[in-house]
Amino acid sequence: MALPAPPPARVFAELLPAQAPAPVPAQAGRGDPPTPCGREVHVSGSAELSAGPDRARVSLRLGSRKAAAGAARSSVARRLEYIAQSARQRGVPEENMTVTEDFSRVENTYQMEAEVCIIFSDFGKMQNVCNLLIEKLGTSVTISPPHFYHTPEAIDTLRRQVCVAAVGNTRRKAQEVCRLFGQTLGKPLLIREEETKEWGGHIDSHLSNSPDSLTLQERIQNATAYASCRVFAVFEIKGKENRRTKLL
Length: 248
Hints:
Blueprint: E1 11-13, E2 40-51, E3 55-66, H1 69-89, E4 97-106, E5 109-120, H2 123-137, E6 142-143, E7 147-149, H3 152-180, E8 183-199, H4 216-222, E9 225-240, H5 243-247
Antiparallel strand pairs: 1-2, 2-9, 3-5, 3-6, 3-7, 4-5, 8-9
């Protein structure tokens, strides 16, 4: 979904001479004169950031049908242990692996089926684990394409970062406006978040709408989240820009 073109930035500066300040007592006359009141620059600014997914879920399915119940269970159990051991050896925490099992009788045989869901935060480790299991277990295990998503913490971080970036862009714009008129930017008097937008990406979900034909990079791109933010700010104008500071 393409982001619509942002509206033109609005810049309003009040540079009219302010009312004369109250006289300064003789004993407090040292230092710079007081800042005149009512001199402000009003600026709006925006920012847009993106964040790739920080988690991937991989599902592995395996099963066995035997005449004896114990044989069916044992066949699946050996492969489950190998999968878990391979993941642990490559740094996957135990709590990131979930195993579900289903045991049933089909005609005159016993059928054991299992599914292992592994959550990865390191996509390099994910590829290593999947490649190893495909090599060692072959067709006895079915590995689904990885499902990429964002944790709520990652989305919250993106929202904070884009807001801070918009405020930073707004302040730099105000500085440039003041410098254009030979003024010095003062402290912020008002900062207001006017609009935020989010699109693309998705949070944790067991369902993935991505076709199986997509490459790994295409899946990551489809799961990338975008956010934009526009803020309005009012800054104080302190007065004439110091010539020495300008030269520096």
